[in-house]
Amino acid sequence: MPLHSITRAAALCLVVLANAATATELVYLPVNPSFGGYPANGPGLLASATATTKHTENKGLGGSSFFDQSPLAQFNQTLERTVLSQLASAATSKLQGPDGKLVPGTFSTANFTITVVDLGGGMLRITTTDRSTGATTTFEVAQ
Questions:
Q1: pLDDT (tens digit, 9 = 90+) per residue, 34-58?
Q2: What confidence score (pLDDT) does residue 143 get?
Q3: Is 141 left (phi over 0), alpha (psi -120 to 50) or beta?
Q4: Fewer CB within 10 Å: C terminus or N terminus of the chain?
Q5: Which of 133, 132, 128, 130 is nearest to 106 (CA)?
């Protein structure tokens, strides 16, 4: 092999090894602008997400959301929830002992019967029965 081709091979190896020596670690660059990515990516990501979503908006029981209602309907709904919250607080206070813990027993209102059963080990089962329909809801909590 002539000296000239050995020199070329050595030079080629030197160039290849020099490129490998300049390699650096991988650096993650986020795409989503919410996580530090380029802000112009936002509309494209939103369009892609909107095009692929299969979620349909649930309109709730009444067919419209709270904000689609008139101010009077919103006020009445808020008032109704406040009254129900106060009734629930009153019922809960009658189910609590002086130490603030729930006491096993039965409490009745005009519309509901609430039964608290001690399951042992600090667990309670609370059953709420709708007196007009007989429907019940049961859940367990730690005391």
A1: 888 889 988 999 998 889 988 776 6
A2: 76
A3: beta
A4: N
A5: 128
